[in-house]
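Supplementary Methods S3. Input chains for the assembly prediction are listed below.
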Amino acid sequence: MYLDIKLQNMTLSLDDVKRVAKLARIEVSEDDAEQALVHLSGIFDLIEQMQAVDTQGVEPMSHSQDMVQRLREDVVTEFDQHILFQSIAPQVEAGFYLVPKVIE
Amino acid sequence: MLNTSLRQLSLLLTEKKISSTELTKAFLAQIKILNPDLNAFITVDEEKSLAQARTADEMIASGQSVTLTGIPIAQKDIFCTRDWLTTCGSKMLSNFVSPYDATVIERFNQAGIVNLGKTNMDEFAMGSSNETSYYGPVKNPWDISAVPGGSSGGSACAVAARMAPAATGTDTGGSIRQPASLCGISGIKPTYGLVSRYGMIAFASSLDQGGPMAKSADDLALLLNVMVGFDARDSTSLQRDKEDYTRDLEKPIDQLRIGLPKEFFAHGMSDDVASAIEAALAEYRQLGARFVEVSLPNSKLAIPVYYVLAPAEASSNLSRFDGVRYGYRATHYTDLEDLYKKTRAEGFGAEVKRRILIGTYVLSHGYYDAYYLQAQKLRRLIAEDFAEAFKQCDLIMGPTAPTVAFNIGEKCGDPVQMYLSDIYTSAASLAGLPGMSIPVGFGNKNRPVGLHIIGNYFREAQMLNAAHRYQLVTDWHQRMPPEINT
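Predicted structure tokens for the full assembly:
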């Protein structure tokens, strides 16, 4: 291929996968985590190619047009549509979204 | 009627030779015949489409129509469409009937364009083969054992099989151009910021850009005229004077300087793709264009950079899917944390979870500089390479994809191999440049090959001009899959 895929020394552990899954709020079984580890390791080998380039002094680019945040007048632009929006919610009551109890 | 250009359809409608209702019915009938095998649409709603067609017919009768009024267009299921199911190819949104319209949909509605249905796609636009869709893979109409490409695979298939005269797509790293290439149609991703992202379900916000997919450059230009425009509801929408994208279509191209990046032609491209591309470039030479060799040395890092930035942004964007306000919610859970974790484990497919995990990892404590920051720096180097190249040429050309369509199932087990099918398209995405793909012939197993055209910022009219001049002297864009009847 046009990319030379070099296997680097970056190693991802099963614990890393589980930690990241916890941060991302995704439940993973032992099997899921093991399979994810195989795939993610391959992807990180690809990503590691970035480290070969010296980027000292290069300004990071977050957006192609290097634009600044546009500001608007401080006026109300939204109107109350909570009945419409809550009509598609899994569980609502008296205008509130229902979730399992968080405070005893 | 099913194999007619938008310009021709527009003429037939305004001259009242056909009605929008008749036209819409004809395409709905084609969908009914072909969709069970091709799976290009997730949602078709004949009544809603026909109601819109009747409104369009009234607009035409009362002289209130614009160019595309009454023409039915298929919408990628990533665009929120009021009262329509909008799934984004995911189980997570399998019950999501949007309470509002995306700006793109709003603009189509205002023009009296009929929504023909919502097209299948890779889940949350993450994929290059349409195989990650919760609603099953789309088949390539040229060969049903092949993928249509992705993520806008349903849209590409719908146009190729003449189930729709045109469709919308979105492109983050190649999702309009690669499926257009694999299905033998034309597609353009405009300069980042031209088409509003409001109501377009977000994948990687600094890269996502909507655009049209159709049979020809002429059709694309007409659609861009509807889709492009400033939108205050999208914080990165660009404020610019209105352009007519058809204005330069007919211009001669004998002064055109085409840049050929040596890195794109060095290796990686399969032989069948290479010969189709060479033949297309020979045609451009005939048309008077000149070639210059250019270099994009950092573009070889586009895939690694893309697979840091896009998952990072995705991990943030997709955190909104938590089973609380809309969409899927797990049935069994113990507490709030468990509700989130089970909802997301059950609602997202494997590829989406993979990318959320990559994104979460690269943004997590201690890794930010090594991955995210480094990727943002390389992104600038990639963009600077293009800026340098455009000092010597007007447009850049090369292959859209390294191979013709691969077989369904062929790359499923190996994400890295799948990612490499966007090897030529992702660099332009990272730079925010406009890119398009047009059909230029056939490769192995008679599967289509696409030519990739990259323009400088805001040079869509010039790209469309070059594509149109090519399509005036060739007929690849008019070819139809052998099994398709119109």
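Chain B has a mean pLDDT of 97. The two ends of chain B are 8 Å apart (CA to CA).
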